Amino acid sequence: MSDTILQVQDLRINFKTYAGIVQAVRGVNFELKAGETLAIVGESGSGKSVTSNALMKLIPQPPGIYESGKILFNGRDLIPLSDKQMSKVRGNEIAMIFQDPMTSLNPTMRIGRQITEVILQHKKISRSEAKKRAIELLTQVGIPMPEKRYKQYPHEFSGGMRQRVVIAIALAADPKLLIADEPTTALDVTIQAQILELMKEIQKTSNTSIIFITHDLGVVANVADRVAVMYAGQIVEYGTVNEIFYNPKHPYTWGLLGSMPDIDSNSDELLRTIPGSPPDLIHPPKGDAFAARNEFALAIDYEKEPPMFQISETHFAKTWLLHPDAPKIPIPEAVSKRIEGYLAKEDQLNV
Amino acid sequence: MSKKLLEIKNLTQHFGSSNNPIKAVDGISFDIYEGETLGLVGESGCGKSTTGRSIIRLYDITGGEVIFDGKDVHGKKSAKELKQFNREMQMIFQDPYASLNPRMTAGEIISESFDIHGLYKNKKERREKVASLLEAVGLNKEHANRYAHEFSGGQRQRIGIARALSLNPSFIIADEPISALDVSIQAQVVNLLKQLQKEHNLTYLFIAHDLSMVKYISDRIAVMYSGKIVEIGLADDIYHSPVHPYTKSLLSAIPLPDPLSESRRTRIPYVHEEVDESASFHEVSDKHFVYGTVATVQKWKDTE
Ligand SMILES: Nc1ncnc2c1ncn2[C@@H]1O[C@H](COP(=O)(O)OP(=O)(O)OP(=O)(O)O)[C@@H](O)[C@H]1O
Ligand SMILES: Nc1ncnc2c1ncn2[C@@H]1O[C@H](COP(=O)(O)OP(=O)(O)OP(=O)(O)O)[C@@H](O)[C@H]1O
Ligand SMILES: [Mg+2]
Ligand SMILES: [Mg+2]
Predict the structure, then answer these.
(1) What is residue B54's predicted lDDT score, i.e. its pLDDT?
(2) Domain with A16 in it: what CATH number?
(3) In what residue span(s) does the ABC transporter domain sit (chain B) (predicted)?
(4) Is A174 left (phi over 0), alpha (psi -120 to 50) or beta?
């Protein structure tokens, strides 16, 4: 049950651009067990999509460069694999739902055919059975009138409907590992909830592992077992979903949790933001990449990159604030109040 | 209340063959007042983008009227009127990938319309305007020389926002402008949109599905389902006293950043009830309208 199916070790991905070398992923490490969901959250541009595309070996080369690292899928390193070897893994064992649905849809092919092709590649069944399965999948992802929609082209679908077709295609392959890059970002909350329920159900029956990239912290709380928080090409905090939401340690994670409006937020107040902008990854800053935006930054943050400090068996954070000699900084009030509110509600329920 | 900037009357937009059309927008009417933000939420595929695109003339509408500042948007216009109109109304597009030309730099994209409108002719002036727009959306001026395909999804969306702001419009249709952004940038962009609104008395139609953000930014909210507006009212009323079952279902599905409560979430599923021709808007409280027949609206109110 709890076999590790994926180990990513010191992954570094660069892009050669006109302006210089972009260090998009700067030493990422994580593991994934069978049947587990890892959510990756983090700043836009922090390397979430590049990391997940790298797992599928989908970084265009050039301009992309696999600078270093290993991607061990069931113990086998994917990085040295040829395109031909890789195409067997892709779609079959690892499937991906892309952030941009149009990259996976062929604009000139009817939706139905795009799904049945994938089914036929993976299962030895007849065309008419594949069609039945495709319509079933369209229904499962909440597309109304699936028979009519089956015959349409992608441009006749709304943004969110296209995304649902892409989800249906990924599920059609029945993969061992599903990488979903912002799969529900384009969807309304009711359809989103349906899709999340569907993914969880499939995970339960097939013991699928899922990497779920999203910036919606509500969705993370709903789907994740473990959470990785990324900043400037690195994982800065890693832990179980409860550790990240109820006991966050990295100031960037505090910033993320503090930026969300509450349903009861007062509209006259400005939302809290993390000041400043993300660092230029062509010239990553010395020391802690988050220092310039961190109101709790220490002198050492500008000098030396912090290591991953271990907080519990499962919880790690890359910030000098966890050094035994660092001043004890409490979680900012905006975040701690919210956490207390959630936990208080929990206590009431348990009485 | 301030004056009506936009009046939408019985707008319809059908696609496909006329004998079996997809009724993307099926006869909707609403007003947007100067300086307000109207949030538009609803199921994926219910016609939100089509509504926005029809308002801004990206489609020839099938029926109805759109009146902007007293003028018929879809009526005949001189080239000059058209130019003026295009400047006043801008749209931030849902899909940051499809809406930016990958072979242009961010700076070129943002300043694209300056020539047509004869703005910032001086090179230095133009560079400064581009830099200030980039900074306003949380990017920096070095990004001006990078090509669109070199940016992440969220970064591209911010370029789209900077482009929409570049001509100082008075009305902006923002089609899921923040969906692709991480929460802290979302907060930055929402703060920015609010601040610009205050400074320039901007009016927004804000299409989104992140309901907590919509609640925060909108004065009023319209809820759409299958081509029709089913409920419209002040943001607080929609949140705290929803009447239409679809609105209730939508509110029950908002995920919270609280793993323990998420593990117990029970969603109210929505089962669509067809309403007959006698359906219309019923005012259930001040400025709060629900679409249905007399009997259904009464029933929904009773099950509150
Ligand atoms: N083809 C490319 N050429 C140059 N730079 C690139 C390329 N693709 C990505 N990058 C850069 O790599 C960094 C990481 O991008 P990535 O798409 O992984 O971000 P992300 O975390 O997925 O962000 P978002 O939440 O906005 O999708 C960004 O700084 C981006 O500009
Ligand atoms: N160009 C088109 N041709 C045919 N049908 C279309 C076209 N554009 C949209 N539609 C259809 O119109 C309906 C409404 O689409 P629209 O894009 O307005 O939805 P939306 O509410 O914006 O959804 P989303 O939240 O997924 O973006 C959908 O059924 C869609 O398939
Ligand atoms: Mg991405
Ligand atoms: Mg849309």
Answers:
(1) 94
(2) 3.40.50.300
(3) 6-251
(4) left
Q: Nearest Cβ partner of A221 from B145, B210, B255?
A: B255
- Please identify, by atom number, the ligand 1 atom nearest to the C-alpha of residue A51: 18
Query: Domain for residue A334, yes or no?
Result: yes
Domain boundary among A117, A147, A172: A172
Query: In terms of CA atoms, which chain B residue is nearest residue A241?
Result: B259
Residue identified by tokens 């249709």 is B173
Do A166 and A283 share a domain, yes or no?
A: no
How high is the pLDDT of residue B83? 85
Q: How far apart are CA B241 and CA B301, in angstroms?
A: 9
Q: Are residues A115 and A214 in the same domain?
A: no
Domains identified in chain A, total number: 2
How many angstroms separate the CA of residue B83 from the nearest CA in chain A?
A: 29
CB contact under 8 A, B187 and A160: no
Centre of ligand 1 to C-alpha B166, Å, is 25
**By residue range, what is the domain housing residue A50?**
1-93+177-351
A227/A350 same-domain check: yes
Q: Do A144 and A194 have their domain in common? A: no
The residue with tokens 């809290």 is: A272
Residue identifier of the C-alpha nearest atom 29 of ligand 2: B45
Q: Is A134 part of any domain?
A: yes
Distance, CA of A263 to CA of B280 (rounded, Å): 30
DSSP A293: G
Q: What is the pTM of this model?
A: 0.87
DSSP A190: H
pLDDT digits (tens, 9 = 90+) for A122-176: 888 999 999 999 999 999 888 889 999 999 999 998 877 888 899 888 888 889 9
Supply B55's token pair: 């308002």
pLDDT class for B304, splitting at 50, 70, 90?
low
A276 and A230 both lie in a single domain: yes
Task: Tell me the nearest-neighbour CA distance from B218 into chain A, angstroms.
Answer: 8
Tell me, rounded to whole angstroms, the distance of Cα A129 from its chain centroid. Answer: 33
ipTM rounded to 2 decimals: 0.86
